Model the fold of this input.
Amino acid sequence: MRSMIITPNPNDPEVQVLSEEFKKRGYEVKYFIPSKVKVKIDHKQFQEQFEKLDPYGALVRGFGAAATQKIFFRLDLLNAMEEYGLKLINSRESLEIASDKFLTSIYLDRHNIPTPKTIICENSNDALDSFEELGGDVILKPLYGSKGIGITRINDRGFAENVIYSLGQLNDVFYIQEFIKHNNRDIRVLVLGNKAIAGMYRVSNNWKTNIHSGATMEPIELTEEIKNLAIKVAKITKTEIAGVDIVESKNGLLVLEVNSIPGFTALQKVTKINLAEEIVSYFLKNATL
Done:
């Protein structure tokens, strides 16, 4: 039997851990690397590519694009795979929603999920007005991106003008969110379908709580409130395997982001649950159309 992992980097440690888990169960793992794909618009040849691989389905562990055109092209590749009958987990729609902070915010707001106040715009003057409207203490985030890369806290008018007008020259889109006091920690919850599998606190010595930015992980016993919120958010964003980021504020729990390709190395260090085993088990159970 065969299975396929979609990844920009087959040597990624987490991809290798998942691959070993598949192999334990008798599956031969094939890798689909988006940057190496050459597509000829010929439905027979496109179909033959998948028939040759004969995968059980495809576990999506990234599509590795930074440039806008590549993002759309690689999302289109996922769309084409689904059009030709390949089951993806997570789906192309899920990746489109969760990898775009604007779309994520729209879906969460539409379903009354509590999130920080957020404004998205293109015009620099509108962005500067938004800085004031959101209280003069904001987080500026790239529309696409993860691991905390490119996220900036702005709480000074002069600095805001410099950053916003500079980015305006680059035709950037401004995703601006009110800063939430959170005692330098937030919560990451791993959701698989209808179950919140595990969670952790991410604790930092500053406001940025991403593990890749130096935060450390601490165990947490997930409350029913946190579990239910994380599961609901995953369903709203159509994300079967989800990393949901939640912050504890003076007004209760707020959802910050949804990750449709959640890392699990850090979380594995604070839980006894075999996360790779759980992910592969979920995939094999659900990767049929």
In short: The chain has ten helices and 13 strands. The two ends are 17 Å apart (CA to CA). The chain has three domains: 2-89, 118-178, 181-280. The chain has a mean pLDDT of 90.
